[in-house]
Amino acid sequence: MSEFTLIPTHRGEHYLFYEHQLSYKVKPKNPFTGITSWRCRRYHDENVKCKALLKATDDRVISQSNNHENHEKVKQTETIMMSAKQDVKNMVSGTRGPVKRISEETICKMIDQNSLTLRDVSNFVPKYKNCEKT
User: Fold this and answer.
1) Which alpha helices (H) appear in the chain, and where do they start and end?
2) CA-to-CA distance for 42 and 127, rounded, in angstroms?
3) Which residues form the FLYWCH-type domain (predicted)?
4) What whole-number distance in Å separates Cα of residue 75 and Cα of residue 20?
5) pLDDT per residue over 74-94, tens digit each?
6) CA distances from 120 to 34, 70, 97, 123 (A)
7) 17, 58, 85, 99, 125 from 133: Cα distances, Å
8) Is there a single domain that holds both residue 85 and residue 60?
């Protein structure tokens, strides 16, 4: 089928970003086949119950059973901001510095690297309570 991107989550796991949808790992990689199973992140939503299931190797999706239900597509900008949020958390836990400065520098860097506009990013920029107090 085609390639995908892994996006870090706040729990140290990854989402699989493929065809404008995010999926979470259902089963670990099979040591014999090298295949990992992924399910749409909207599977447990009461209003959606999306049953799309992907099977992927380390570098590409090899099969998809069921199509995604009628729910919104995930924008590339959202995945970039998810990565930025995880980067900020990693940097804050590893250094002693103002959270606000680390957050602003990391997010600005992601915006510059990916040539994003503020309009695109505004809905997905992480909000940190510590930043609001200063």
Assistant:
1) 76-94, 99-113, 118-121, 129-133
2) 23
3) 8-68
4) 6
5) 777 778 888 888 788 877 777
6) 36, 22, 28, 7
7) 34, 42, 18, 11, 17
8) no
Q: Which residues of the chain register pLDDT less than 70?
A: 1, 126-134
Tell whether pTM > 0.90. Answer: no
Q: Which long-range contacts does 69-72 make (Cβ < 8 Å, 24+ apart)? A: 69/40, 69/42, 71/42, 71/45
Domain with 19 in it = 5-65
Q: What are the beta bridge partners of residue 17?
A: 5, 22
Question: Would you state the structure tokens that stand for residue 50, as one six-digit string?
Answer: 């999306």
Domain-located, residue 71: no
- What's the total number of domains in the chain? 2
